[in-house]
Amino acid sequence: xxxxxxxxxxxxxxxxxxxxxxxxxxxxxxxxxxxxxxxxxxxxxxxxxxxxxxxxxxxxxxxxxxxxxxxxxxxxxxxxxxxxxxxxxxxxxxxxxxxxxxxxxxxxxxxxxxxxxxxxxxxxxxxxxxxxxxxxxxxxxxxxxxxxxxxxxxxxxxxxxxxxxxxxxxxxxxxxxxxxxxxxxxxxxx
Length: 190
Known about the structure:
By secondary structure, the protein is mainly alpha-helical. The protein has helices at 3-11, 17-55, 70-80, 91-107, 135-143, 146-156, 160-182, 185-189; strands at residues 118-120, 123-125.
């Protein structure tokens, strides 16, 4: 008996071998979505920097691996940089604000199907993390939660200009969300 299956027998209700397969496949899908998301952000940042350098007729990121390893160098630099915070900031909320903006953006990817279901010898693997029948409404609802992170970032810094900027950005995001939500009405009617 494998140790993983023995662990499933110890845990209780999840005693089926299909549960272990489902758990492994879910973890693989989570890691794949997170990796694609983070690599996409890194490569799009690199593309933005290279295109901006080309438009401004200057050298862009071209040192680390001819520029292609620049996202890795940026990541290492971010880990070794000193964290500075405003003196009067509400520190727990100031740290929590980017997390509140990032998590809804990542959770939205959970309901996007990337392929047709795959039939394996151990069962059917859905190519979506959370197959919801109302996935589009879930995307609209969860993506609107990112506004709270922006407002919280402005408020927690204890700076009136940051607060005004956060409120202005959140008003802009809400106005875009209204138009996005209203654009789904013709599809719901038909």
